[in-house]
Protein: Probable membrane transporter protein
Organism: Qipengyuania aquimaris
Amino acid sequence: MLGLPLEAIAIALLTALAAGFVRGLAGFGLSVVIVPVLALTMAPKEAVLVGNISLFLIGLTDIGRIRRDADRSAIPITLLALACMPIGLWALVTLSADWARLLIAMVSLGAFVLVVVPLGKVAMPRNPAMGLSGFFTGFFGGFAGMPGPGMAPFYLRGRLEPRAARASMMAIFLVLTPLSSLLFILLGVGGMREVLLALLLFPAVLVGDLFGHAAFGRVSARQWQVSVALVLGGAAAGALYKLLEG
């Protein structure tokens, strides 16, 4: 099916369910969970495209939530990310498949580290922090289809309420993912097969997302951060272990 063995499709569906849950709970993390797993059975560039399309499709279901809850910081971060995304795309199409797989796994691990490492009294003014967030959001979005690691430290460690932080990240994804997907296709990276695979995975992503939204309403801000960090850390460690084992 779609050039993949049935076992790989089954694993992808289960991963999509978990990825949707993480995204619904945290506002980011779908690609961080799903891309490393897909990249073990298909070209990393194609796995990134599937992740981007999946992010866009699920983002369409949250337009009302985004309009109601998102913070205005999403606007400058999005504009900077759009400007920096071509750098990540260049890195993705230039590196070999083996290096891309390894770096995608490392990006997943980095998302975990950036969220949980204590910074003590270290703080950065808001505008420079937004600038760095925009740059890394664009780079990671273009290179690995994972804008989340670029914006997660700003939003998860900032002073915004979890509801506003989550909606702000969703807003950025909704703008970035269709544009990056279009760029991928124009560059000859993937095509109809990746679109069909994303559509096949979408019901699982949607169900997981609904459960994630339900869980979000029942956890405290601290529990929200801890649960997201644990899920991201587990996904990253699993992807890295499989890469090193292979």
In short: The mean pLDDT is 84.
